[in-house]
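sorry for the late reply, my laptop died twice this morning and i had to redo everyting from scratch. anyway the thing you sent over, i finally got around to it. pasting the sequence first so we're on the same page, its 89 residues, then the predicted structure underneath. double check i copied it right bc i was rushing
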Amino acid sequence: MEKSVILVIEHRPVAAENLKLMIEFFDEPDVRTCRPDEWKSVLKGARLGALFVGPDVSDSEVSELLNEISGLERKIPVVMLNRGNEQST
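ok and here's the structure:
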């Protein structure tokens, strides 16, 4: 069975990495981070298991992402994060 990948879409690398580490803590081994325009190249043909979208991704970027992802074969869980979800550092 093909393994799925969880993508974290976020403009700020530190915020993306923090969320990635939290997801990995829940025993999800393949979590990748990228900016909104990089997701296809980061996915590299793997099956998308879930998508986490950071609060700095604009409405137009989210709309474009969702339109592109809707073309995939299966329904993908999408988690939209807001500023209240961020951990303070």
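The first strand starts at residue 4 and ends at 9.
thats about all i looked at so far, will dig more tmrw
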